[in-house]
Amino acid sequence: MPCTPRLVSRRSGSCGLEPMISIRSRLFGPILAENDTNAPVHQGDKGADQHFASDEVLYRRYLSVHFKNGYLLPAAFKFPRQSFNRSAFSRPEDVLHADCCDGKVLEGYGVLECSTQFPTPIESSDGRAFDFLPKHVPTPTCYAHSELWCSERGTGGQEYKDPPPSVKEGFRIKLAQRMFFGVRIKAQL
Fold this sequence. Notes:
Blueprint: E1 57-62, E2 67-68, E3 71-72, E4 83-86, E5 110-115, E6 122-123, E7 129-136, E8 145-152, H1 165-178, E9 180-183
Antiparallel strand pairs: 1-4, 1-5, 2-3, 4-8, 5-9, 6-7, 7-8
């Protein structure tokens, strides 16, 4: 049976994922919004931190329509610059908080997790290689906000490079296989 996100356990390390450590052990002292003790860490005067620890995970929200027969659909990942939250500065549920959703209140979403070690490089049909990496891009109300960046190998990697369709599809498939549940949608319990 192929490996699916619904079968992956943080404890088991199945499907080639390394066992995950406790989320709470990676959290730093939060800068909370004045009146909301559950608010995500706000940026304050802190700049971006581009060091991603090898045991750090990323959180991403999902809807049940992103799955078919229990499998995460690769189309759940859009280009360019997909959003994630870093576990070093947030809890899984922070990706559902209005402060990390451009002020929107989201209903019916769950949270997926993945390693910061993306499947990379992905080679295009014309032989070019594309690397994928997390980039910390904090917002004023969501310090943990990060994006998935792509660069063409050999170009220095400083600028985002939109990959060709074959690379996007190959990456989406590999990323979908590496995602696992952080917070399930209540209807799926």
